[in-house]
Amino acid sequence: MTATAGYENRVYILVGDTPMDGSTGALISGVNSTTYEDLVEALDVTSFGDLYKKRIFGLGDVSFSLEGKYIPDDADGQKKLRARTYAYVGIYQNGEEKEGVQFPVLITKFSLKADASGTQDISIGFEGNGEPITLPVRTI
Predict the structure, then answer these.
(1) CATH 4.10.410 correct for 6-135
(2) At the top level of its lineage, which domain of life is listed (predicted)?
(3) How do residues 46-72 score in pLDDT, each as one tens digit?
(4) Domain boundaries, the chain
């Protein structure tokens, strides 16, 4: 099995509560790195007298973050990434010609960092608001 190059990763956003289809959503420009986590709680079910803890799976959760260069004129992508916004975020991990994954999120963090070189970095945090679903192949 071959590894997938990170530069094939594409991230789309669609503000609101409707999932993306193959033609909706806006590409987020300037993305350098993404982190997608599919998480699950571990619930302690240890009984009195047990010598070791015992656990069962609880509820699932999704967490996502992205970092990159701030592009102020990316009106369709970066300008929609503001805290206190409901959206769908979609990731094509292997390029847009293959299915990806999308999930409903709350945008919980928007951060800009500027340094003396004149560039600005952007960092966005998302918390899941439901289960991940398939992101159809891009048709446009």
Answers:
(1) yes
(2) Bacteria
(3) 999 999 999 999 999 999 999 999 998
(4) 6-135
